[in-house]
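Quick check before the chapter quiz. The format below is the same one you will see on the exam, so make sure you can read both the input and the output lines.
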Amino acid sequence: MNPDREPRWTPPADAKEQPRQVRRILRLFRPYRARLAVVGLLVGAASLVSVATPFLLKAVLDVAIPEGRTGLLSLLALGMILSAVLTSVFGVLQTLISTTVGQRVMHDLRTAVYGRLQRMSLAFFTRTRTGEVQSRIANDIGGMQATVTSTATSLVSNLTSVVATVVAMIALDWRLTIVSLLLLPVFVWVSRRVGNERKKITTQRQKQMAAMAATVTESLSVSGILLGRTMGRSDSLTRSFAEESEGLVDLEVRSNMAGRWRMAVITIVMAAMPAVIYWTAGIALQMGGPQVSIGTIVAFVSLQQGLFRPAVSLLSTGVQIQTSLALFQRIFEYLDLPIDITERDNPVHLDQIKGEVRFEDVEFRYDDKGGPILHGIDVTVPAGSSLAIVGPTGAGKSTLGYLVPRLYDVSGGRVTLDGIDVRDLDFDTLARAVGVVSQETYLFHASVAENLRFAKPDATDEELRTAAKAAQIHDHIASLPDGYDTIVGERGHRFSGGEKQRLAIARTILRDPPVLILDEATSALDNRTEAAVQAAIDALSADRTTLTIAHRLSTIRGADQIAVLDSGSVAERGTHEELLELDGRYAALVRRDAQLKPTS
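Here is the expected output.
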């Protein structure tokens, strides 16, 4: 359960990729330019108002108090109070708008990733762990929340404050300003080093979190719990989880401590700068330099402190952005995954579907490296008729059936529906045309009615009952205390295998597709349950084009034609009687099936 199968994507190793990635992140905010412009205005206003306070303080110390001008003192004090009020109001408004924008961007990202995954072929999900997918959506996007909701605003706010404060400091005394800014390049260099270090650790941490999420998803599902306990592996699974969690502890500590001492030194140096300013002003005075008023020094130190706070915050924001780039990179991996199965630019839409299916010289392979799974398949299934597909395990039976609804796409040849290549049809037509009932029945953790209505959201209660009766499951549902409002449980575990199959059949009956794919729908059922499910399948198959993939040959003897697959090609084809008379592969399968059939 531990192999970490990631999508086949190589993250950018070259540092030149970072600017392109930053531009891509900025494009996420493009739809919200107007709101961000308002935030920018609020940030600028707040910065200007806050910078005004030291100048008011200078006037208080150098003019109002020494000259005893009480009226001016009152106005200046009122101005300082008003400055604080306006700064706070502007701050609240910019936080509200920026948080709203950030959450909308988060929503856009989540939706984009989910929508992208919905368009991926079945092959992607067969090689990717479910927990890995969930971790990308939950942990990676969730980890970016602080960045997209507050970091951008903090960056603009602090940058504006730094620029406004530096201008104000130069206006007060350019010599003291030079002293104050001497160490700034060193601080910037240190913050970049810390940011790169945290980015590397964050990438490792997110991979570890994804692996742990995959373990939880697999081992704490109903099936995982059953397997773990019946195999006596509960303690082993707990130890395995503990080891993964221990690895995460180390990464979390490293992530939080990365560059912490270097940033602490920066904070200490910045805190000591006021003493350096006082010392510089005092030495300059003793050496006969230009006099600096007390008000100027106090105002300058106030501005300096006002500079250091956003400067430190700006450096921390830079570190946070570097860290978040790792998360964005993992999200962009999924957004950049190639979509194998796409809709044509001008797809064909069919309102009326007869249901004729043809396989014309069909070839299929999972990738370019492996050999063909199917080759040279030429079969026609007339509308309303039935085709049974049999053969040994690994012959490609399910794959052939899945080519019709485009769960996979052919590598060569074509599959047609009513004479039209299924690749030329729009997805809506295919979804209406083809229904699939497989051995692995999936039910949501919701009520029976909600599971059935997944096929037809506007279905009436009477339609639900009619479909359930046709699927031989209505009486059982009606006997439950909550009837159709009964919660089926995780993956439908409140119901038996046969009951889940009949619920799936009722759901497909409600959908009413003209073409039906039955993928070994009764292979895991006992004889009695199989008979009930088969009766439901017979009701479902009436007047539909039906492709049945079967292990139990007793269920397909009445098929209009039977195709025997062997090594990816059609070895034999005909009716049950014709193939028995041929005494080939099909006859051998029938004899084997008879030997394996229970006597009671």
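If your answer matched, good. Strands lie at 357-364, 374-381, 386-390, 412-417, 420-421, 434-438, 515-519, 545-549, 561-566, 569-574.
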